[in-house]
């Protein structure tokens, strides 16, 4: 592999991928996510995936990682937010995703 190609690849470390069923700081949970990209057998949550919120009704994920994507859709991680202002809480805190850009 040429040096120029190696230099273009950057490792990105991300902790706490969000999956279907993960909770929010308002007591809600992620309602759906990817059918293809899974972590521990559960679909990952992505930008615009639906989330329940007991305080504000149903909402959507509005923040996600700009370069870690599932079929072109950014994947959500611990601390990303939903439209109602709550933040996502990962049940996969010990997990680290390593992606090459």
3D structure, described in words:
- Helix content is 6%, strand content 26%.
- With 101 residues, it is mainly β.
- It has a single domain (17-96), classed as Tumour Suppressor Smad4.
- It has a two-stranded antiparallel sheet. Strands 2-9 form a two-stranded antiparallel sheet. The protein has a two-stranded antiparallel ribbon with strand order 3-4.
- The radius of gyration is 14 Å and the shape is globular.
- InterPro entries: PAAR_motif.
- This is PAAR domain-containing protein.
- It holds the Pfam family PAAR_motif.
Q: Into which percentage range does the β-strand content fall?
A: 25-35%
How many domains is the backbone divided into?
1
Within the largest sheet, what's the order of strands? 1-10
Q: What's the assembly state of these chains?
A: single chain
**What class do helices, strands and sheet pairing give?**
mainly beta
Helix segment count?
Answer: 1
Measured distance between first and last alpha carbons:
15 Å
Major β-sheet profile: 2 strands, antiparallel
Radius of gyration computed on alpha carbons: 14 Å
**Counted beta strands:** 10
Mean pLDDT: 85
Q: Which fold name is given in CATH as the topology?
A: Tumour Suppressor Smad4
Q: Shape from CA axes?
A: globular
Helix content: under 10%
CATH architecture: Sandwich
Q: Uncertain runs with pLDDT below 50, 5 residues or more?
A: 6-11
What CATH first level would be assigned? Mainly Beta
Order of helices and strands: HEEEEEEEEEE
């Amino acid at each position: 592999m040429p040096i120029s190609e190696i230099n273009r690849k950057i490792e990105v470390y991300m902790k706490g991928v969000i999956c279907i069923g993960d909770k929010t700081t308002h007591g809600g949970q992620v309602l759906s996510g990817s059918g293809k990209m899974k972590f521990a057998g559960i679909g990952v949550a992505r930008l615009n995936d639906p989330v329940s919120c007991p305080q504000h009704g149903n909402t959507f994920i509005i923040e996600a990682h700009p370069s870690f994507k599932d079929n072109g859709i950014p994947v959500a991680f611990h601390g990303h937010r939903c439209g109602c202002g709550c933040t996502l809480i990962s049940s996969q805190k010990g997990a680290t995703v390593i992606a090459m850009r």
